[in-house]
Design goal:
By secondary structure, this protein is mainly α. The chain has a single domain, classed as Growth Hormone, Chain: A (Up-down Bundle), CATH 1.20.1250. Helices cover 80% and strands 0% of the residues. α5 packs across α12, α5 crosses α14 and α10 packs antiparallel against α16.
């Protein structure tokens, strides 16, 4: 195995370990807070605070990734801070402490995502990006399966605090993986999307001119915002609905919702990486958007704990495809601009508006009208996302040889 191949192997393992770290407690947060007497709308509010913090931090995080050469350090510090913020909840799950924890987790999680994307692009380059994104996502989802299975078992026997311990262990493992990725294997100009043959190693235009003038990028961001407005609350809502009926153990059921989705995401991500190499990203994004309203309809109509199987299988399809297609599509649109990571950060910021508002919206509807009505609202929003994308986005903008930034800026 040559040196760069070794770095890629450790990059894959890093994605495995970060699966249990970068999003904090994730779906376990809702059932953890319910166990401490929190109401559905209060849980939604505190999740929304974290989402807003992440939303505000994501574009600066992309700019940071474009600017710094210490990308490994950024990921490492982020991992440590996410775990520290989550451990605060064990000390005091009050509203204030929980809000501080979620705000910190949202900010750091926003930094880790672009940093991993920059590391990946810097090692493999534009041509190798689709396949490597597929491998990254597959390893990430495998890590989610591993950690969720272990968290469910540990939580069943020792309670939800065991989930916190597991997260800390995975954070330490991620630091070990980072240390094995060789700095000299990372081309930091390529990592930000520069094409030295065309630009001489300097960005062609100002950041905001590139981002604001790219219609394909803005349409992608709008579709993703609507998608996450319908999607972000669906998994926590599914877990809360089952727990509120007393039909499932909180830790075990939440773990199962994660495991089912992640098992589907692994082959889906590998398929998406291979498909994007040949056909581009438009159809992958379309299928992902279509899976969400189907998921919402099943969750709203089938009032049973067993609904988690089809609901989370559809979630696996959508998330598995978007995990590859979103960063790959942004990299394709902005290739040559030198602003790929801030572009990904900008799209993520806009989609985070939807993700931040989703838990609060769903929590209010669930409290006043029931969980079925909440799922219906989320499904309607998902259909709107699909309509926007199908009617307005053009396939050529996300094709294997899509338009570079210079062509998109008028």
């Amino acid at each position: 195995m040559n040196a760069k191949a070794a770095s890629l192997a450790w990059l894959s393992r890093l994605n495995f370990c970060l699966a249990d770290v970068r999003d904090g407690l994730g779906p376990f947060l809702g059932v953890f807070l319910m166990g401490h007497g929190w109401a559905a709308d209060d849980i939604g509010y505190v999740m929304t605070l974290g989402g807003i913090a992440g939303m505000l931090a994501t574009t600066p995080a992309g700019a940071l990734t474009d600017a710094v050469r210490a990308k490994r350090l950024v990921v490492g510090l982020g991992s440590v801070l996410v775990v520290a913020g989550s451990l605060l909840l064990l000390i005091s799950p009050s509203f204030t402490v929980t809000a501080i924890s979620q705000v910190g987790t949202g900010i750091v999680g926003a930094i880790i995502g672009p940093a991993i994307a920059g590391l990946t692009l810097g090692i493999v380059g534009q041509q190798g990006l689709p396949s490597q994104l597929g491998r990254n996502e597959a390893w990430n989802h495998a890590g989610n399966v591993f950690s969720a299975t272990l968290a469910g078992a540990l939580g069943y026997f020792w309670g939800l605090p065991a989930v916190f311990v597991l997260m800390a262990v995975m954070a330490v493992a991620s630091l070990l993986c980072l240390a094995r990725i060789r700095p000299e294997d990372i081309d930091h100009d390529v990592a930000r999307g520069l094409d030295p043959q065309r630009t001489g190693g300097k960005p062609e235009a100002s950041t905001w001119r590139v981002l604001a003038s790219s219609r394909p990028l803005m349409l992608l961001a709008l579709a993703m915002m609507l998608f996450h407005l319908g999607n972000a609350a669906m998994l926590p809502l599914l877990g809360q609905s089952a727990v509120s009926r007393g039909g499932a153990d909180p830790a075990l059921y939440t773990a199962l919702t994660v495991i089912v989705a992640q098992l589907v995401m692994i082959p889906t991500a590998l398929f998406a990486g291979r498909f994007a190499d040949r056909k581009g990203y438009w159809l992958l994004i379309t299928i992902a958007l279509l899976a969400l309203p189907l998921r919402g309809m099943v969750a709203g109509v089938w009032d049973s704990p067993w609904a988690l199987l089809p609901v989370q299988m559809l979630d696996g399809v959508g998330a598995g495809l978007l995990g590859v297609a979103l960063p790959g599509s942004v990299a394709r649109i902005l290739h040559g601009s030198g602003h790929i990571n801030i572009g990904l950060g900008a799209v993520t910021t806009i989609q985070s508006i939807g993700a931040a508002m989703s838990p609060a919206l769903a929590g209010v509807v669930a409290r006043h009208y029931g969980y079925g009505a909440a799922f219906a609202v989320l499904t309607g929003i998902a259909l709107l996302a699909l309509a926007v994308w199908a009617w307005l986005a053009e396939r050529r903008d996300h094709a294997p040889q899509g338009c570079p930034a210079a062509a998109a800026v008028k």
